[in-house]
Design goal:
The protein is α+β, with helices and mostly antiparallel strands and about 45 residues long. It is built from one helix and two strands, in the order E-H-E. It is about 30% helix and about 20% strand. Strands 1-2 form a two-stranded parallel ribbon. The model has no long low-confidence stretch (mean pLDDT about 90).
Length: about 45
């Protein structure tokens, strides 16, 4: 975990699923990072 101690901001490709929802909160809580999410509509639905 020490290699991530200087992380201040993270850009997360956010799908809205359980895995990205969990990692989003983990990044905020465990790393104290500001998380910016990116979501794209690819017309798949």
């Amino acid at each position: 975990m020490s290699k991530f101690k200087n992380v201040k901001k993270v850009v997360l490709a956010y799908s809205g699923g359980l895995d990205t929802s969990i990692i989003l909160k983990w990044l905020q809580t465990e790393l104290g990072a500001e998380v910016v999410t990116f979501t794209a509509d690819l017309g798949q639905g």
